[in-house]
């Protein structure tokens, strides 16, 4: 029996082998893809590719770069490589150590780089990488070629037979696809790109200190822990701004930095480069730091220390400066997005300014341990879009038992707000607008690594879509897709990548 795994090489090993083969006049053909859940279409594709030359190389995307959302890939890159190597028409297989095929193309120098017919319409490639790959293959003297064989969708097959989604999500998607194609959803995201956005909110520096319990100390009733390492993330409004800047390149951030611990170099290095900033500096209070102590195996949060000023007072002179800026510039922005964590920036005067003059006002108000019962969404007299979680709307209206629909209508009326989304954690979200009524959107993933920042990500992606006047069921779906991706990211280690989101949405709606 032939050991097909002998065909599996590194890209570097193949580069040496192909250099020798090229000298003997052999034609090299290169295919690249995820190849998760191989099907007859892949076999036909490989056979057609092999007919273009003498040696067929297949490189495949490493697990960490698949970016098709929770539950993908179904099979890890080792299994995918072994399966492809078993095909007789394939001569060699390599696992590509990078997000695209560009570097592999440069090293392998194929005569033909072969893609399936679904890539022939280059504009429809969500990632836009087909242009980079074409440029790379031409640079090494090769050609881009498209096969025209029978094709299937791996994502469609996975959704039908291997879906990691909860049953209610499968049922929801079956109905949702009848109303909204993936193209229509992606167009909704495209409509947000030209929005000019002002983001206002509290800066939070999130620290994760990873430690392992050693046991009870001999003299005290406490558990001693051993420090492992730490990470520092840009949280609060910084995280929200990084999320929204992925959709809306013309984004400005307004916030206050405490001079006692200003974190200026850290903040500058952890904001996306195109974000414009308008910072004010306060001697009255420090920049808020939240230090969480975490057991790393399951990311279990042990306890938290908050470094903040309990009074949360914004100096009058800074309040005057900020109000002056808002009064002069609010009309310049298509949308104002407010993330209010209750740490002192959103004073009554500043709230009044944004409520009176913002062209479109999106509001998210969060309760935390330092302001329970005092920082509620109803302190804003008006908004165009409100996005909060279920406990916060119940706290704002002092109502533990009424239906969520009735509470949503009360908030809508009280705040003169036509669009409201209530996020509900593992129960998904409830979207409402005066035009569309209510829509329930179930959670789109069972996988949860870390819930920190999921609500901020949901809000940051949903708000521009509401501003672009998209149906609320569609907005809720996009928000839940964002949430499903965000809970797989530790803290605010990274923002949700818009291209990965597009790929995930396209995979869900196949």
Question: What does this entry look like structurally?
Answer:
- It is built from 17 helices and 19 strands.
- With 510 residues, the protein is an alpha/beta fold.
- The chain folds into two domains: 4-161, 3-Layer(aba) Sandwich (Rossmann fold), CATH 3.40.50; 186-508, Ribokinase (UDP-N-acetylmuramoyl-L-alanine:D-glutamate ligase), CATH 3.40.1190.20.
- The strands form three sheets. A nine-stranded mixed β-sheet has the order 11-10-7-14-15-16-17-18-19, sandwiched between helices. A six-stranded parallel β-sheet has the order 1-4-3-2-5-6, sandwiched between helices.
- β10, α10 and β11 (276-282) form a beta-alpha-beta unit.
- The two termini are 39 Å apart.
- The mean pLDDT is 90.
């Amino acid at each position: 029996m032939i050991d097909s795994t002998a065909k599996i090489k590194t890209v570097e090993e193949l580069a040496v082998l192909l250099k020798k083969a090229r000298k003997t006049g052999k034609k090299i053909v290169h295919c690249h893809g995820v190849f998760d859940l191989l099907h007859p279409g892949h076999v036909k594709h490989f056979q057609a590719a092999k007919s273009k030359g003498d040696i067929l190389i297949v490189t495949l995307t490493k697990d960490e770069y698949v970016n098709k959302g929770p539950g993908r890939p179904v099979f890890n890159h080792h299994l995918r490589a072994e399966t492809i190597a078993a095909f007789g028409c394939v001569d060699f297989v390599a696992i590509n150590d990078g997000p695209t095929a560009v570097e592999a193309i440069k090293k392998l120098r194929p005569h033909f780089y072969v893609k399936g017919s679904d890539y022939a319409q280059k504009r429809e490639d969500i990632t836009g990488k087909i242009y980079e790959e074409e440029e790379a293959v031409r640079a090494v003297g090769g050609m881009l070629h498209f096969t025209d064989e029978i094709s299937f969708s791996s994502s469609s097959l996975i959704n039908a037979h291997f879906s990691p989604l909860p049953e209610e999500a499968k049922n929801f998607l079956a109905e949702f696809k009848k109303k909204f194609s993936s193209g229509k959803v992606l167009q909704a995201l495209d409509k947000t790109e030209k929005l000019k956005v002002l983001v206002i909110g509290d800066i939070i520096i999130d620290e994760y200190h990873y430690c392992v319990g050693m046991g009870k100390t001999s003299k005290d009733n406490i558990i001693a822990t051993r420090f492992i390492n730490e990470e520092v993330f840009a949280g609060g409004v910084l995280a929200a701004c990084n999320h929204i800047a992925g959709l809306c390149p013309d984004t400005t951030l307004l916030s206050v930095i405490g001079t006692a611990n200003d974190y200026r170099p850290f903040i500058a290095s952890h904001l996306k480069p195109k974000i414009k900033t308008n910072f004010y500096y306060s001697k009255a209070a420090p920049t808020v730091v939240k230090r969480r102590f975490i057991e790393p195996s399951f990311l279990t949060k042990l306890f938290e220390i908050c470094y903040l000023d309990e009074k949360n007072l914004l100096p009058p002179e800074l309040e005057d400066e900020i109000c002056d800026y808002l009064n002069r510039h609010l009309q310049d922005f298509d949308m104002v997005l407010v993330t209010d964590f209750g740490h002192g920036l959103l004073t009554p005067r500043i709230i009044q300014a944004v409520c009176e003059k913002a062209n479109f006002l999106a509001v998210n108000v969060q309760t935390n341990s330092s302001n329970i019962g005092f920082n509620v969404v109803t302190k804003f007299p008006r908004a165009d879009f409100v996005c909060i979680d279920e406990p916060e709307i119940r706290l704002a209206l002092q109502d533990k038992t009424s239906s969520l629909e009735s509470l949503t209508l009360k908030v809508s009326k009280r705040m003169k707000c036509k669009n409201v989304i209530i996020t509900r954690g593992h129960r998904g979200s409830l979207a409402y607008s005066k035009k569309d009524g209510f829509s329930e959107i179930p959670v789109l993933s069972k996988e949860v690594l870390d819930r920190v920042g999921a609500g901020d990500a949901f809000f940051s992606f949903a708000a521009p879509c509401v501003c672009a006047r998209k149906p609320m069921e569609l907005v809720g779906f996009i928000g839940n897709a964002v949430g499903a991706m965000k809970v797989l990211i530790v803290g605010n280690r990274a923002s949700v990548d818009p291209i990965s989101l597009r790929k995930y949405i396209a995979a869900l709606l196949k």
